[in-house]
Amino acid sequence: MNLKQLSHMLALSQTTVSRALNGYPEVNEETRRRVMDAAKRHGYRPNPSARRLATGKTGMIGYVLPTGAAVEIDPHFVEFLSGLGDYARSHELDLVLSPADADDQETTYRRIVANRQVDAVYISSPRPVDRRVALLNTLGIPFIVHGRSEGFGFDYPFTDIDNEGAFHEAARLLIQLGHRRLALINGDDRETFAIHRERGMRRALTASGLTLGERHICSVTMTEENGYRAARRLLEQSEPPTAIACSSLIMALGVVRAVRDLGLTIPGDLSLIAHDDVFPWLRPENFSVPLSTTRSSIRLAGARVAERLAARISGLEEGARGEVWPVDLVVRGSVAGAPV
Amino acid sequence: MNLKQLSHMLALSQTTVSRALNGYPEVNEETRRRVMDAAKRHGYRPNPSARRLATGKTGMIGYVLPTGAAVEIDPHFVEFLSGLGDYARSHELDLVLSPADADDQETTYRRIVANRQVDAVYISSPRPVDRRVALLNTLGIPFIVHGRSEGFGFDYPFTDIDNEGAFHEAARLLIQLGHRRLALINGDDRETFAIHRERGMRRALTASGLTLGERHICSVTMTEENGYRAARRLLEQSEPPTAIACSSLIMALGVVRAVRDLGLTIPGDLSLIAHDDVFPWLRPENFSVPLSTTRSSIRLAGARVAERLAARISGLEEGARGEVWPVDLVVRGSVAGAPV
DNA sequence: CGAAAAGACCAAAGCGCTTTGGAAGACTCT
DNA sequence: AGAGTCTTCCAAAGCGCTTTGGTCTTTTCG
């Protein structure tokens, strides 16, 4: 059932039927009802390929997926995706993932824009002065950054959490509890979120006349193993930290294992706070010692990004508004006063 | 730069240029070279929307993503996706995720087929007599099932691992080590993979005159917490198992925690084998006691599924061939002889 | 040598929608 | 009553590609 058949059946022109269906004003309300009715009854659905060719609109949002043998898409992505899907579903938006060589994403971005394959895209895990942001800005396709980039000569729309504030609060709490030697096990420090977390922590330390020495900071891919290694390195120093802030729950698993291997205890010998993106399959309250966290649902962020993309596509949102979500600090058993 | 311009520039018809570019035989080789050359020089790329409308081919593969507040997409998905992306990238295939209400995926499948939104789709986490398989079979779109379904009046193409064989081997090993009371912490037993694993284990037990009692089997969503709970339930019985087979590494984390909470040890009091899908961020060799596993890379499976989909799209693969990959049994420190 | 076959190319008709540029009739207003 | 204005609808021209159904020229072969 296509437009031609439908309009013939209604003894109307394709023009009128098309307009009736798409809510244009220049059509009699009575006629519109008739059309709507017939369309529903016959299950007419406009062919998206045809519509695409005519309008350029695709009803899809895009994401360039970095791939390659050495590239690991981490589990955060899937949780973000869930949120995105939650929103997208109710708006019949599809998501297209375009796999790209991790070292040359630009080609793919250019392709999907030139080909008009999607109406909007989002970017995740941005770095400071991220080339993708600059690129999309010049290409002129609607986009949202999940996270933040910095230091451009222009503004851009983003949705981010207050990583700096979160880790500032976490560090402040630890300091209040008497800790003097804090350490940070961070994610990849080429990414903005990691830089912000470090900055937040440093700010809290400085305010109390403390510092975050080179020896007390690690920056690694967020795997269990790297968490373990980092913790061992930190704790086997001559002056080990008495508290650690950790950028992910998965790494925190490794930290806990290291602590145990070294015959230490949490929170007796070490206080631990980790960032929790809220995975359904790994909860901080279920750690052997319930884990204190800075918490922010990455799933909700996904839904929000989808919502904003939809708004931008339909022209409801414009400009470069950035939003920063606060992060909860949730205190559980893994923090205590510094050992004497 | 579109076809019209290009052909005008070459003083050829659109027909000839199109055919030259698409490798049709009825064009002079000399002419073809000229065309190819000009196309490359001017960076001509056929507009996919137009091509789509004309041919119905999209260059995309589809996946219906179940969503909803209660639905958790698990981390296996992202790893599978990585593999899919690895292959898809080299073939300029994109992947479109269509979010659907988890309870009504059929509507979405019908939509993407009716609209010709993708050239092929894949299905994951199939159940026995999975309605999606039956549906896609009647809808007549190329598809591959990742996993297996059972009991149709027709065959279908799938790529699966030998779940039954894997858990059969695992159980056999445990029995050889003298264990008599085995337990299984399984995934959702409405899914085929879980049924196969149980079947494999049962087969091994039966062969030795043993059984898998109702009290020794759990079937839960694969989260850390559920692993913990299941293990507690099993181990606090009057006649607790001396060995557990577990369907995922994430649940195994919970098992290890439970064992520790109960003051038991691995492998002294309990032998543990888990299935490992090979996540880069959580490795069995890094468990406090290195974990024995049945291992099969889900990422490789993703690449294979993409490859087969591509083959089916281009007509290189036909029929209902199913393939079953063997699973490695990797023995590490978490298994030992049964306690006396 | 003449007929048939093969080779190389093209004009034009789709694919199914949106949108432009009217046109016809009804209504208002002076 | 005639000019102007709405309201409501339509024919046809795109969007940029593929493909059908030729035509014209050259080659092959009995």
Description:
The first copy, chain A, is an alpha/beta fold. Chain A has three domains: 44 residues, Orthogonal Bundle (434 Repressor (Amino-terminal Domain)), CATH 1.10.260.40; 128 residues, Response regulator (Rossmann fold); 134 residues, Response regulator (Rossmann fold), CATH 3.40.50.2300. The first copy, chain A, is 42% helix and 17% strand. In chain A, the strands form two sheets. A six-stranded parallel β-sheet of chain A has the order 2-1-3-4-5-11, sandwiched between helices. The interface between A and B is large, with 62 and 62 residues. Chain B binds a DNA duplex (30 and 30 nucleotides) through α2 and α4. Chains A, B: This is HTH-type transcriptional regulator AglR. Chains A, B: InterPro entries: HTH_LacI (IPR000843), LacI/GalR-like_sensor (IPR046335), Lambda_DNA-bd_dom_sf (IPR010982), Peripla_BP_I (IPR028082). Chains A, B: It comes from Mesorhizobium amorphae CCNWGS0123. Chains A, B: Keywords: DNA-binding, Transcription, Transcription regulation.
Topology at a glance:
The structure is a homodimer of 340-residue chains.
Chain A: H1 3-10, H2 14-21, H3 29-41, H4 48-55, E1 60-67, H5 76-90, E2 94-101, H6 105-114, E3 120-124, H7 131-139, E4 143-146, E5 158-161, H8 163-176, E6 182-186, H9 192-207, E7 217-219, H10 224-235, E8 243-246, H11 249-261, E9 271-276, E10 292-295, H12 298-313, E11 322-325, E12 328-330
Parallel strand pairs in A: 1-2, 1-3, 3-4, 4-5, 5-11, 6-7, 6-8, 8-9, 9-10
Antiparallel strand pairs in A: 10-12
Chain B binds a DNA duplex (30 and 30 nucleotides) through α2 and α4.
